[in-house]
Fold each of these.
Amino acid sequence: MGRVSKAQAQENRQHVVATASRMFREKGTAVSIADLMKASGLTHGAFYKQFASKEDLVDEAIAHAFQNPEPHASAGIEGPAGDHEAARRTMIEQYLSIWHRDHVGEGCPVSGFAADLGREPDQAARSQSIYIGGVRNRAARLATVDDDGLTQLCTMVGALVLARATRGNPLSEELLQAARTVLTKSGAGQYEPQRCAD
């Protein structure tokens, strides 16, 4: 078998990063290199020709997820251009959709990588600046006159994670709907969170 050209090697690398970005959001960063390379259609040994370590790949996969939204998810993540309020509402509706709930690997990296970065402090230290930038960027897209967007993003991510955990039960769709309602009602960003009963 002949040597791979530099262009083909770069294409293979980008394919591995894109595959890892989806698989890590779907299954977590504990996915084995062997499984990842198999899903990429490349050999296990090819990994070490492309990456210094799995941690380096995780960093690149997180950056890729924030910089390259999946085609099916991009409309919801970006929203319509020009009208900020319409874009904000579209982002909320798409983010809190059944499609987004059911397509973890193609979904938002904020929710997709949160658990792994929370569990793995060493990886979090490496990837945190990329992740923080992505969180702040998405919050800024939700910002209103009275709200910097962080509360809205927290509500969206929390509702999505809970909806994924309860998929198959009516509660899952109720969670998505409840968050959509509170975030798209008139004056969103000014609402008062309700206290949970003790």
Amino acid sequence: MARGRTRHTKAVVVDRTKLGESDLILTLLEADGTQGRAVAKGARKPGGKLAARVQLFCELDLLLAVGRSLDVVAEAQLLEPHAGLRGDLERVSAASVVCEVARLTCFEGASDPFLFPICLRALLACEQAGDQAHLDVVVAAYVLKVLSHQGWRPVIDSCVACGESSVTRFSALAGGGLCESCAREVAGAEPIDPVTLGWLEAQVCLTFDELLAAPVDTHTAALLLALVHTWAATHLDARLRAFEFALSV
């Protein structure tokens, strides 16, 4: 470690990995939208000063000692623990998807100020959701908003292949909506109805407050979540284990 060098950052913990008997490696989404990694020494010891402060989903004010490969947590002040997520399997599952996608869409040295506030807002929305349907909508909206921001926005107002306005199928590989004729050429294109298409558009365009207030049935919300999972797995080229678990809850 470079002696005496420290840096200050605000961050949300989006992943934790065991290191030895008592330490954790934290993956952080920092306030400037970059990904950081830091060792939290003693964080696995019950009652240790860091144990309750570096939980998944927590927003922190951190002082980090700069290291050659990994920084080390020197001080950690808990800003928002998102206590409303704890002890509730459905909410923990939803928030875990938010953190999984946050980890996969932020990068070391690549600042993107959009990513930090939308992650925090999505975690809060997971606490605020009144039922499972709205939890599903929140997760799907967060994922679509982030991927659309990074260039992976689905085409849903017309056929992505020919421009025909009548969209009856959806394919992540093709890039969005397809007409019935073009869908014959695309393996795995799934049927989609106008209501679901409208919800896909709403998830990108509406705020979380608006989405939380909108009526949605359980079937539509679950379908949206499954479609967005396929979209994310395809364009992030990754297996999304937290997402898979959330779909099974």
Amino acid sequence: MPPDDALVTCAGTALTFGRDARAVVAVHGANLTIRPGDRLAIVGSSGSGKTSLLHLIAGLERPTTGRVTRAAGLEPSEIGLVFQNDSLIPALNVLENAALPLILADRPETEAQQAALAALAQVGVQNLADRLPEEISGGQAQRVAVARVLSQAPRLILADEPTGRLDHASGARVLDALLAAADLTRAALVVTTHDPSVAARLAQRRTMRGGRLLAPEETP
């Protein structure tokens, strides 16, 4: 049985794409428990399975074998996922993109925009509020994608290489914002990264290698 205080528990969770000779195992039997207030870095090289594991935790993929158990009171809207690609909607400006999850959750438009503006300020792009995605850089777009998640004040924040497309100063600011937002609501924060300096800022670290999530004692 998962711990009573767990937000998400993975038990022998595996994910395979394709079948037979073409089958590719992206995640091999991962065991992981995420609790409120956790600060976890999942470290590994490109192709190690980090993104696939994050998608399993978020519910975007269903495990081929094993289980992913989420707390009974954890609503999908309380899980915020920062994708590796910014995934902004081209027809919406920066403010509208950041406010979109709140609008879809039936929050009043004025309230949604205020929360979105505050989140944009946290990552230093509030001055871009009226710009369209095509009018900003890739790094700026990634910061907007982070703000879109922060505006929701989720209970679980999953960030997939959130600093990978940013320079050092911008990356540090984004990580500051993620940590501050998680501290404010006692949310759990899980960050995938290949950058040791990013991993060093989170209290817990697990390594993925070849689709396997190593136990803490196995971590190099």
Amino acid sequence: MTTTMNPLFSLSRATSLRGSAGVLAAACLLAGCATGPDANPRDPFEPYNRGMTRFNDKVDDVLLRPVATAYTEVTPRLVRTGVSNFFANLGDLWSFVNNALQLQGEGALNSIARFSANTVFGLGGVLDIATEMGIDRSKQDFGLTLGRWGVPTGPYLVLPLLGPSTVRDTIALPVDAKGNLITYVDPVSDRNALYALRVVDTRANLLRASSVLSAAALDRYSFTRDAYLQVRSQAVQTDRRGEERYDEDAGKLPPEPAR
């Protein structure tokens, strides 16, 4: 489940070390006076988080949603699908690294097979050949890798512009940034253009979900927080053998309806 600013969370992998550390420190300082005996143990920073959510929603209302709406209206569905496939393909390579770090052999094999097939035969990832071949996606990030080795999610934390997170996921941002291939694109103007396109594409894919959320949830903040924490805590599940298994569909959005 996502909120209106959750698309930017997915771009948090491009955050710099200093930026993410500063965000975490500022959040903790601002939230320090928000804790108390009645605080939600999973959300001790709630007053700060709600304020940041309102700020993020304003940015979304003024900028992101209008741009994403215009993008869906003027860009053919086939092109938008290719853009989404391209960025997902880049993520498969980083998923391979994290699956390997988690000693998940099948997930690592699937991730590198997907990246190789889509890059070579799918026009650099524009076409999702791997899915047609029946190769499952095993999406992972460094926050989940930390969780695999016992690091708890920590309190809920809403980041400026990046949206829902946890203390563990925020600490993982600098490492995830290094694993984002866009980070290494030169010149900088091309890199920034790719970042902007990814923001717009991700937000466009969430237009339907955010509309449903706005209509259905009495308290969008609490609903989003609880859903997000559940997704992140259950992404790593322990089976009866004590081994780790991963819900690859956790937080996945339903497909966009055909026009």
